[in-house]
Design brief:
Blueprint (H helix, E strand, L loop, with lengths): L1 E5 L4 H13 L4 E3 L11 H13 L5 E6 L3 H7 L7 E3 L3 H11 L3 E5 L5 H12 L7 H10 L3
Parallel strand pairs: 1-2, 1-3, 3-5, 4-5
Helix pairs in contact: 1-5, 2-3, 4-5
The chain binds D-ribose (RB5).
Length: 144
């Protein structure tokens, strides 16, 4: 199950992502928002998706705001969340292989729909490498 969240700046691109998920039979839970017309606050959607992953309800998430920056910062405040802001397929692949990222963040005002959908496809279809060095580095992210 994929958790989805966006603000008004990410709403239009999220509709493209939803069309991709529907076409490929990928299950998702949409935490909103549900319109591009009303300005909303991106931290609320970052939080909802982060909590859905941490509770085990969803395995991965996709977050979109205007830049992808605010919503990824918000999600990354939650321990255990590794939200990666990606604007290219190389990064989307690398963040799964190396960081075991559990959220993909994108900028709805940054990316066109064709590239964004390829980034989503790459992110969802790349497994974590499981390499010891990457596990070690990921565990150090949570050290205080
Ligand atoms: C909303 O106007 C915009 O600030 C938001 O979508 C995002 O880009 C924040 O990082």
């Amino acid at each position: 199950m994929i958790a989805l969240g966006c603000d008004h700046g990410g709403y239009d691109l999220m509709q493209e992502v939803i069309a991709y998920l529907d076409k490929n039979g990928i299950a998702y839970k949409n935490f909103g928002c549900f319109s591009s017309q009303e300005a909303v606050d991106y931290p609320e959607y970052g939080r909802a998706v982060a909590k859905a992953i941490l509770s085990g309800e969803c395995e991965k998430g996709i977050l979109i705001c205007g830049t992808g920056i605010g919503i990824s910062i918000a999600a990354n405040r939650y321990e255990g969340i590794r939200a990666a802001l990606c604007s290219d397929c190389f990064s989307a692949e690398a963040t799964r292989l190396h960081n075991d990222a559990n959220i993909l963040a994108m900028g709805g005002r940054v990316l066109g729909p064709g590239l964004a959908v390829k980034i989503v496809d790459t992110f969802l279809n790349t497994e974590f490498s499981g390499d010891e060095r990457h596990k070690r580095r990921i565990s150090k992210i949570e050290e205080r």
